[in-house]
Amino acid sequence: MVQRSVLLVFIPADSGTDGPAHLQKDVSSNGFKRLKDGMLKSVIKRAQFAIPPLSLMILSSIEVDGVQQTICDLRFETLPLDKQWDLIGISVQTGAVKPAFELAAMLRQKGFRVVLGGPYVTVFPERCREHGDILVRGEADEIWKDVLCDLVDGSLKPDYTAAVFPDLSSTGSVKKSALDISNYFTTNVVQTTRGCPYSCDFCNVHVMNGHKLRHRRIGDVVHDVEHFLKEDKRIFFFLDDTVNADEAYAEKLFRELIPLKISWVGQATTKLGENPQLLEAFARSGCGALLVGIESLADASNRAHHKFHNPIERQAECIGNIRSAGICVYGSFIYGLDEDTLLEQQTIETFIHETGIDVPGINLLRPIPGTGVFDRLADEGRLLHDRHDHDAFRFSWAQEILYRPKRIPLEEFIPSYTELTRRIFTPAQAIRRALAAPTLKSAVLMFNLFYVHMYGLSRKDLLGQMAALDVESSSTL
Ligand code: B12
Ligand code: SF4
Fold it and tell me: What single-letter DSSP state applies at residue 3?
């Protein structure tokens, strides 16, 4: 049988967590600074964000006779264009569309057949049509097999759409054979559920994955964890948006994982702090840290963005309970939501101090095309770029403001944000948080020090943007 070769490509964003603009452009003419920036860029890529794309791991685990699949992660690897590929798949992320389309154009010009899939294709297929030979819309866990079979039969079609959300209880196990394991900080990435019952308007998970929570079978997850452990003993990342979304399921699963003695991190709601049994199961199964989305400390702001599920009055106690169980808390805020005023700045700082949050993340709202908040801000004339220019809404990591906050003029908002991050991310605070962390002290120190650096760069970028927007800054760096 003729062997078909498929290459699956993951593209780094030209901004965002892959490094702020200062590290992307080799702007420095000073040799020492260039060297330092080069080293930092490499550390950022390798140390913090170097987990593999689960999407492409799932696709490459689908076996069809006569098809060999390989993953190319452009964060570390160069495109192997010296080989003959029968099909090249690109994962297109909203926020990194431009580099994806540029790559597709280059490959098609060289005569390769390109298939586009991923979040942006799912939400904006009509904008992708001319950029790929084949489009795959939706979660491709099941439909990718059809594409591969059609490749073998020579009957590929221009469009494939997942008519329903895949039933995760019947999907197979995830394999790592298409990956170069040595590239990553860890390759142990697992998702137990998909979909989200909530509707926060700044998020597109419920748009892409629906409102119904779908579960993998507990036995399948345990099987994947056991197999992953044989190849890689490092930490596990549970990539679920809310790993405690179904408390009964989560408790059963993590109790079954206790004997495997893994260590893991994930994302949860603070509601976890109200369930001592689940908290105990998480801690005993090796949970070291959880990211919790706090967003605003003004209930009115969270409500304005359709986030209703964790009222402020319970947050501090829940965070305390999670930390008392020996689990570090990464608290993620969004400053500048619709009912936030300048007072929020002090409220966030006090809250972080009083709750002892181990790693704070102070984000700017990033309107993602395809979300409710994007359309609303566009209708209200508050976006800083043309709503149709999706490239302008690229991934950014606290480096760039893309909209006008409702209650705070931009010329006051940017300095108040930079002032907040300047006070929260200092070397002294980093050491204090590490010493107080319930576990993973050196990781907490590293993360906080890394943020001291990153938020320092973000301040420079933001104030640069402010100058470009022709607004006056009174902020100190
Ligand atoms: C883990 C994660 C991260 C990790 C690791 C990312 C990685 N290297 O894989 C880290 C922490 C680094 C991260 C960072 C960021 N993230 Co993130 N992240 C996630 C998270 C929680 C899980 C991703 C995942 O693995 N999903 C599971 C897989 C199976 O789903 P999937 O990727 O959608 O893939 C399926 C389909 O889309 C399709 N598909 C995907 N690719 C392809 C390719 C082909 C060829 C085909 C046919 C099909 C196909 O088939 C897959 C299987 O069904 C998602 C939320 C989510 N639920 O997806 C957010 C999410 C992807 N992140 C998001 C954002 C905004 C960010 C940041 C910009 C945050 C920031 N401000 O810095 C950065 C940007 C990073 C970057 N430079 O790309 C948004 C993206 C919005 C979008 N793309 O439209 C999401 C959706 C969260 C959200 N609230 O909206 N993230
Ligand atoms: S932010 Fe979290 S809780 Fe809100 S809709 Fe997105 S995934 Fe669900």
Answer: P
